[in-house]
């Protein structure tokens, strides 16, 4: 299990490949692999009965034919829902996957997995514990992994429960104290909203050697600019647009991380 500069590629399929297939479904992971992605990002959150499912929103309404909070439903009830038809009729019948199913498919497809952990207020520890338990199951075959979150309590709990897991901290706006946060949590990668990232902050991050992944980039010109700033990966809903370019392009070769403990 490792995540290092050479394993995070220039393009990461976002929510699988959210512009090409229903986000956070197995179909989206297959689509990302078919488009040429080597890594995917997907979001996980806890159901009411403590299972982890791939879902970005706290509620079921936008992406499925269900309604209400994910946290109010059991895994069995969620598995009855359609998570594909809202995206396009041809995806009808697609289900919301559990984390272990998604990981098994990543192994099968040879995809690295950036597991972005979302947690409701008051459920940070329970969510982190479920992630750690899934990833520490004896004998589990795992893909290359990064566990990331905006929620610092989630990252701290994963660090405490499964110290070997590589962590990435996500920022909406990278704060002045980003380096202390990353160092304190033992993170090996930084994620940033590309709309609020500045070339100066990107350069400062890259000067310390951390890989820098920017979300969400669906425009080739923007990706090119971010790479010139030193951004090492972009998350894309339409990874094909950027992978076309990357076929002949290498993102800035990251300097070795001096502070983060790479595993
Ligand atoms: O993990 C990067 C990105 O997915 C964070 O934003 O809201 O799309 O989960 P969001
Ligand atoms: Mg996400």
Description:
- Residues 1-5 and 251-263 have low confidence and may be disordered.
- By secondary structure, the protein is of the alpha/beta class.
- The termini are close together.
- An 8-stranded parallel β-barrel has the order 1-2-4-5-6-7-8-9, surrounded by 8 helices.
- It has 9 helices and 9 strands.
- It has one domain: Alpha-Beta Barrel (TIM Barrel), CATH 3.20.20.190.
- SN-glycerol-3-phosphate (G3P) is lined by residues 14, 41, 43, 56, 116, 148, 170, 191, 215-216, 235.
Write the layout of secondary structure elements.
Elements: E1 11-14, H1 26-35, E2 39-46, E3 52-54, H2 75-78, H3 99-109, E4 112-117, H4 124-135, E5 145-149, H5 152-161, E6 167-171, H6 178-185, E7 189-193, H7 199-207, E8 212-215, H8 220-229, E9 233-236, H9 239-246
Helix pairs in contact: 1-3, 4-5
The chain binds SN-glycerol-3-phosphate and magnesium ion.
Residues 41, 43, 116 line the site of magnesium ion.
